[in-house]
Amino acid sequence: LIGGGWFFFFIRVNVTYEAHSPFRLIPADLFIGSLLASALFALIWEVVQTAGNLMATQIFFWIYILFTTVLFVTVPWS
Predict the structure, then answer these.
(1) Which residues, 6+ apart, have CB-to-CB distance to 15 below 8 Å?
(2) Closest Cα partner for 59 from 44, 72, 73, 70?
(3) How confident is the model at residue 40, as a pLDDT?
(4) What is the pLDDT of residue 12?
(5) How far is 63 from 56, CA to CA, in rounded Å?
(6) Residue 60 lies in a domain
(7) Cβ–Cβ < 8 Å for 67, 34
(8) Looking at the predicted structure, is the pLDDT value of residue 67 above 70?
(9) 1 in any annotated domain
């Protein structure tokens, strides 16, 4: 998560080199964003599982599945 955040916020080549706004998003940014979200929700899902809350476990599991699906669908754009 730390390395992905560092890449996304500090060394995106298009933003730095072409002097675009740092808030400009392109389709390739969806890949790194979904990668970060997938990793984050996997960690949250694991923590909620250890707490034993079944409803929260299912919710975070499906959010994790959503972002992981988006991650694999956006591979051609990366």
Answers:
(1) 21, 22, 24
(2) 44
(3) 94
(4) 64
(5) 11
(6) yes
(7) yes
(8) yes
(9) no
- 64, 42 in Cβ contact below 8 A? yes
HEC profile for 12-73? CHHHHHCCCCCCCCCHHHHHHHHHHHHHHHHHHHHHHHHHCCHHHHHHHHHHHHHHHHHHHH
Could you give phi then psi for residue 53, rounded to 5 degrees?
-85, 105
Radius of gyration of the chain (CA): 15
Query: pLDDT (tens digit, 9 = 90+) per residue, 4-25?
Result: 777 777 766 566 667 777 677 7
Q: Tally the domains of the chain.
A: 1
Is residue 10 a part of any domain in this protein?
no
Instruction: Determine the structural domain holding residue 37 and report its residue range.
Output: 29-78
| Structural domain includes residue 4 | no
CA dist 42 and 35 (Å) reads 11
